[in-house]
TrEMBL record:
Full protein name: Protein-export protein SecB
Species in which this protein is naturally found: Dyella mobilis
Function field: One of the proteins required for the normal export of preproteins out of the cell cytoplasm. It is a molecular chaperone that binds to a subset of precursor proteins, maintaining them in a translocation-competent state. It also specifically binds to its receptor SecA.
SUPFAM superfamilies in the record: SecB-like (SSF54611)
Quaternary structure (record): Homotetramer, a dimer of dimers. One homotetramer interacts with 1 SecA dimer.
Database matches in HAMAP family: SecB
Pfam families: SecB
Family per similarity comment: Belongs to the SecB family.
Cell location: Cytoplasm
Keywords tagged on the record: Chaperone, Cytoplasm, Protein transport, Translocation, Transport
Length: 167
């Protein structure tokens, strides 16, 4: 645990204590496409089948040295109406995390579960805003259980399957 002095200064971690510090959350990349606009807006009133929404979720972590890691959570939301793409919204939400003093298993769990769980609300808000500002009905992504996804990823790795975090 980090030691905080009376004047609010952080004197760094206490000897031998694990530390986890969120240094920054930021948008690394964002895009929105409505490839069939404006025709798709006319079709919305004539929908013969429910819109199909597909979410692709990935994450990656990059070590930057000095126990600093960039974790990027990428969400791509694709909506099709009558087999035509209505919109595609994508965000790469990133964070800088200082992670030190944890066991290898705990460190991997922090990167694979805790960090994306912290980044998700920011990415969800951006996706929601992009969809609505693109002229489509509001869309709210449901919560994602990153702990379960990480556990499934670990199970697959143990079974010899490739390790990617996908939903």
């Amino acid at each position: 645990m980090a030691e905080i002095t009376a004047n609010g200064q952080n004197n760094g971690p206490a000897a031998g204590q694990p530390t986890l510090v969120l240094q920054k959350i930021y948008v690394k990349d964002v895009s929105f496409e409505a490839p069939n606009a404006p025709q798709i807006f006319q079709e919305i009133g004539e929908i013969t089948e429910a819109p199909q929404v597909q979410l692709n979720l990935t994450q990656r972590a990059t070590g930057l040295g000095n126990d600093l890691y960039e974790v990027v959570l990428s969400l791509t939301l694709t909506c099709t109406i009558n087999e035509r793409t209505a919109y595609l919204a994508e965000v790469h939400q990133a964070g800088l995390f200082g992670i030190a003093g944890f066991t290898e298993a705990d460190h991997a769990g922090i990167i694979g579960s805790y960090c994306p769980n912290l980044l998700f609300p920011y990415a969800r808000q951006i996706i929601s805003g992009l969809v609505q500002e693109g002229g489509f009905p509001p869309f709210l992504l449901q919560p994602i259980n990153f702990e379960a996804l990480y556990a499934e990823q670990q199970r697959r790795v143990a079974g010899g399957e490739p390790h990617t975090l996908n939903s």
